């Protein structure tokens, strides 16, 4: 497609990506900013989604890298979950091209709202690890595969779904859950990016400009996760869940 990347557009989208990367590292939901911004710049929806996956890979990679360096992530323990999340996202990206997503579109705002309410009202949310419901293997073949499938199929709120799964099923404390959620989200982003790229739906130069912004924002956001933990994660997860639910409902019912 024809697209002229001016200096002004590049600067605006770089700034948007930096803010989105900061939010994503802590609570997820950065796509609420980047996807509308890409469409404002003149990209068709499919190309906006594909280019968004490229820049999102930058944010999730640098946040994951920071969490690994700080010891919040044990790569060996989530190796199978990473693989399952990747496979799930690849299958979801293929599946979304074959089936009607309208039912999921109707259900999604309420699912994300439920996540926000869980984080707001649950007394189980803390920095400390709790009782583990699923073994790492069972978690990989259920939660990781399922959320990965969802991310490839639809996408909004994936980070929140992963974080919820780690808290409620793996028994992780909130900071640890956020760190592992970002790592699995990087895996699903890569899988989806591959299929968008194969379909020619990625504008690489624009995506790389935004990736740089994502890297800065994600690094700053992940530092706050390590230093502030639950104090900053919990309210931002709740806020972003409400924002995503409202945005999805507004889109469905043409409120704007």
UniProtKB/TrEMBL annotation:
Top-rank taxon, per record: Bacteria
Major place of residence: membrane
Cellular localization per UniProt: Cell membrane
Residue ranges crossing the lipid bilayer per the database entry: 12-40, 46-68, 80-98, 104-121, 159-178, 190-212, 232-250
Gene Ontology annotations for the cellular component aspect, listed alphabetically: plasma membrane
InterPro entries given in the database record: TM_pro_TauE-like (IPR002781), TSUP (IPR052017)
Keyword line: Cell membrane, Membrane, Transmembrane, Transmembrane helix, Transport
Topology of this chain in the membrane: Multi-pass membrane protein
PANTHER family in UniProt: MEMBRANE TRANSPORTER PROTEIN YFCA-RELATED, TRANSMEMBRANE PROTEIN YFCA
Family note: Belongs to the 4-toluene sulfonate uptake permease (TSUP) (TC 2.A.102) family.
Protein's UniProt name: Probable membrane transporter protein
């Amino acid at each position: 497609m024809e697209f002229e990347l001016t200096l002004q557009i590049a600067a605006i989208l770089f700034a948007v990506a930096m803010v989105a990367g900061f939010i994503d590292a802590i609570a997820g939901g950065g796509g609420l900013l980047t996807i509308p911004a890409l469409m404002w710049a003149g990209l068709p929806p499919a190309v906006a989604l594909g280019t968004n996956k490229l820049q999102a890979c930058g944010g999730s990679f640098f946040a994951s890298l920071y969490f690994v360096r700080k010891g919040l992530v044990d790569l060996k323990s989530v190796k199978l979950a990473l693989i399952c999340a990747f496979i799930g996202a690849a299958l979801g990206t293929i599946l979304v091209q074959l089936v009607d997503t309208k039912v999921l579109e109707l259900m999604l705002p309420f699912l994300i709202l439920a996540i926000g309410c869980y984080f707001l009202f649950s007394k189980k949310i803390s920095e400390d690890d709790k009782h583990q419901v699923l073994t790492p293997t069972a978690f990989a073949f259920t939660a990781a595969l399922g959320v990965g499938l969802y991310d490839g199929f639809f996408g909004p709120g994936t980070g929140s779904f992963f974080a919820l799964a780690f808290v409620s099923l793996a028994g992780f404390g909130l900071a640890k859950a956020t760190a592992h959620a970002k790592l699995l989200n990087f895996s699903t982003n890569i899988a989806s990016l591959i299929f968008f790229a194969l379909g020619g739906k990625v504008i690489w130069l624009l995506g790389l400009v935004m990736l740089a912004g994502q890297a800065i924002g994600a690094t700053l956001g992940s530092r706050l996760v390590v230093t502030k933990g639950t104090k900053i994660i919990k309210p931002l997860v709740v806020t972003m869940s409400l924002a995503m639910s409202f945005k999805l409902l507004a889109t469905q019912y043409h409120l704007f």
